[in-house]
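Bit of a strange request maybe. I'm writing a small parser for structure token strings and I need a real example to test against, not something I typed by hand. Could someone generate the tokens for this chain?
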Amino acid sequence: MKSNQELHNQRQQVIAQGMGAAYPLYVEKALNAKVWDVEGNEYIDFAAGIAVNNTGHSHPRIVAAVKQQLDKFSHTCAMVTPYASFVELADKLTTVAPIQDAKAVFLTTGAEAVENAIKIARAHTKRSGVIAFKGGFHGRTNLTMGLTGKVAPYKAGFGPFPNEIYHVPYPNAYHGISIDDSLQAIDDLFSCDIEPSRVAAIIFEPVQGEGGFYQAPPAFAQRIRALCDQHGIVLIADEIQTGFARTGKLFATEYLGIEPDLMTMAKGIAGGFPLSAVVGKAAIMDAAGPGGLGGTYAGSPLGCVAGLEVLNIIEEEQLCNKALNIGEIAKARLEALQQDVPAMGDIRALGAMIAIEFTDPATGKPLPDLTKAFIGQAQQAGLILLSCGVKGNVIRLLPPLTIDNETLDQGLNKLAEVLKATA
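Reply from user aminoacidic:
Good idea to test on real output. This should exercise your parser:
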């Protein structure tokens, strides 16, 4: 078998550089919260495939469900000859989502879910404008890049983007952006750029993912909801990274005291199998005509049976409670560590969606180079980490929600060693 370096050298020859790799390690096996590379090195995974494996790597119940489905058939196209799991998963999702009288549509990727949510909103309102937030991330397709509020590396060199997309600041107390600042920016848009009667949708993340794990204040979400109601605007909650028990509730919107019109779902929805969804109010979802939504692989049978099992596992293994427990343990450990690593400027946790923001303790300026060094050293310590943040100065922790306390403790020990040695 080839080594990590040999595979990485080969990768550089055959894979376009635009499709980057966080680590030069190549996975041979993964189970729950641990990963082994082709050289037999063991790692504790604090990334979970970017919040995809909330139920852990290779959960035996998901593996069994998919194997059973694979023995029957792998694809027929749900828009041609559908199957029971396609309907059953939609029934469950529309029941557990915090939206009354809901319908669903299945797709394959998070970006597709966002694109189709915008299509649905435009079909329903007969309007074209969309308001998104600075620091938000919604995908890498042309429309979703336009919605994304972070240039490097997602938008640089890829324009022009679709018109009638507008960005406003996301409330962020740590960086001095108040709820009123954000809402005033929307009011300014209505005065200077687009009248509210031409806005189809406002899309927001209950917790910004790539933007740095900043939480939307409930008061902000409630005022946005009221604003949308006032002007007939569709409110879209992008739950792609926050969904499926990651934050301690099935969906992070449940913390906000609002009912969105549409929700986008992906990542943790199917335990590692490609699947995404839009769930929303039936009257809005039905605005698109037959054939207007979908895709060849949309709602694959493998993804649907995996998705059904994920919902069962979340309930039966109490993963929402486990997410809260992970967040409490990690935040306490990290706050104690701040005394030894003063560059840890802020620690944020909503369930098991945990972030460390690195800033210069004297000036408050972001420290992206130090953050990058932490990520690089993590591999040597046997730990898989991810960065995020508009300035690239945030480390995010996304351990599988099925991680046992001993492995979590070992991972946090490794993280502490890396931070102390590198800072």
